[in-house]
Design a protein that fits this description.
Beta-lactamase; glutaminase activity; single chain; binds glutamine; Glutaminase; Beta-lactam/transpept-like; alpha+beta; 13 helices; acetylation
């Protein structure tokens, strides 16, 4: 069936958000970063951005939240622009099948992270960015401000400090990569920028706008070429296979769109040729993906009969 844009209305999204309220209380907010555990869990938002920039939204779609691992999508964009295919020396493109912050494969894979969307891979990407950019966090913020058309975007320093203070696992992964010769910059410097990227705050509307170029062959809604069509297709392929950590297969099965999640409770998904969507609710399932955001996206794609497969 062909996608009918007229079915994706504010009314449709508002109904989904209302129905989703019955799932509140079934998940758990991320508590390994103490500043994230303090968030009000009873929030649900969703926003769709069509390729022409039109927005449809419902619930808390304009409330900024911690983007966390969704930042990995945009640091990959920056790194691909800077390195092109050279980027893949020392960073894999396979789903890990393990938790987002697992270290087990890093040892057996000789310090080469499985993909850029798990923590080890994103730390390697941040290391590459550190080598070529004078101020990686500022430059990421500038990219996001432009893509979301929101000059007010910023990182929450309290969340970044909280994560840095509890970031032994990420530090261990970075040092292990360094021991294998797959990490060039001082670990503490890279951790600092990585944590600030994760602590950037954006709303569903901001994130849907910022990722819509992935649905439009690399062209942003304001008409700017962000990546080539070829690079865009490949990022979508990585999102489809690796974007939801060890639930990537389940997400492909149930939602059927390339996606990227974060422990702040947001999930971005892309329907190439049509729209991007961001759902948000802070309570997570055991894998670390938002329980309600996953449900919202399942319902959206089921009811609209949208899937890339
Ligand atoms: N900042 C988080 C971490 O490094 C991001 C993890 C995530 O969103 N899955 O653990």
């Amino acid at each position: 069936m062909t996608f009918k844009r007229s079915a994706l209305t504010e009314h449709f999204l508002t109904d989904l958000v209302e129905e989703a309220k019955q799932l509140l209380g079934q998940g758990k907010t991320a508590d390994y970063i103490p500043a994230l555990a303090a968030i009000d869990p009873n929030q649900i938002g969703i926003a769709v951005c069509f390729n022409d920039g039109d927005i449809v939204q419902a619930g808390a779609a304009q409330t900024p939240f911690s983007i966390q691992s969704i930042s990995k999508l945009f640091t990959l964009v920056q790194a691909l622009k800077l390195y092109q295919d050279e980027l893949w020396q020392g960073i894999g493109r396979e789903p890990s099948g393990h938790r987002f912050n697992s270290m087990v494969q890093l040892e057996t894979d000789h310090g080469v992270p499985r993909n850029p969307f798990i923590n080890a891979g994103a730390l390697a990407i941040c290391d590459r960015l550190q080598s070529r950019l004078s101020a990686p966090t500022f430059q990421l913020l500038e990219l996001l401000r432009k893509l979301a058309d929101n000059p007010a975007l910023h990182a929450n320093n309290q969340v970044a400090r909280s994560e840095l203070a509890h970031g032994s696992r990420n530090a261990a992964m970075a040092y292990l990569m360094k021991a294998f010769g797959n990490f060039s910059n001082p670990v503490e410097q890279v951790l600092h920028s990585y944590c600030h990227h994760c602590a950037i705050e954006m709303s569903c509307v901001d994130l849907a706008k910022a990722s819509v170029f992935l649905a439009n062959k690399g062209i942003s809604f304001s008409g700017e070429a962000i990546l080539s069509a070829d690079q865009t297709t490949r990022i979508n392929a990585l999102m489809a296979t690796c974007g939801l950590y060890d639930a990537s297969g389940e997400f492909a099965y149930e939602v059927g769109l390339p996606g990227k999640s974060g422990v702040g409770g947001g999930i971005v998904a892309v329907y190439p040729g049509h729209f991007s969507v961001c759902a948000w609710s802070p309570e997570l399932n055991p894998v670390g993906n938002s329980l309600i955001s996953t449900w919202l996206l399942e319902q959206l794609t089921d009811r609209l009969e949208v899937s890339i497969y």
